Amino acid sequence: MDAMTLHIEPAAADPIYRQIVGQISRLITAGQCPPGTRLPSVREVAAAHAINPMTVSKAYNLLEAQGLLERQPGKGMRVASRSVDDNPLAARLHALQPALLELARQARQLDLEADQVIDALLPLINEAPSQEETH
């Protein structure tokens, strides 16, 4: 994994550290960062995205506290050997839970039916990722 794998949106509602935590958690859960994968250093991520190193450090510390990352002296942070759930589908669906709850809340506020939301969501799920999403 390199620092540019992360997509940071400074103007987003979520704080930057939570964006980092969420993205790395999803990459690990999806198996895109298997156990032992080296993460970019705090300085590399901070420099690549022009953000405060303390923000990246906070995200890494939270991921370590969750058991997803482990600190290896002299080698930096790596994906923990026990970071992968025994039920990968359940773990991936669980990672979507906050976004699904927000989507459901907004759909209710907009007085949309479930089938209307699903019809709008399916093409988005099935389309190829845009260039913006891959960076």
UniProtKB/TrEMBL annotation:
<dbReference type="Pfam" id="PF00392">
    <property type="entry name" value="GntR"/>
</dbReference>
<keyword id="KW-0804">Transcription</keyword>
<dbReference type="InterPro" id="IPR000524">
    <property type="entry name" value="Tscrpt_reg_HTH_GntR"/>
</dbReference>
<keyword id="KW-0805">Transcription regulation</keyword>
<protein>
    <submittedName>
        <fullName>GntR family transcriptional regulator</fullName>
    </submittedName>
</protein>
<dbReference type="InterPro" id="IPR036388">
    <property type="entry name" value="WH-like_DNA-bd_sf"/>
</dbReference>
<feature type="domain" description="HTH gntR-type">
    <location>
        <begin position="14"/>
        <end position="82"/>
    </location>
</feature>
<dbReference type="InterPro" id="IPR036390">
    <property type="entry name" value="WH_DNA-bd_sf"/>
</dbReference>
<keyword id="KW-0238">DNA-binding</keyword>
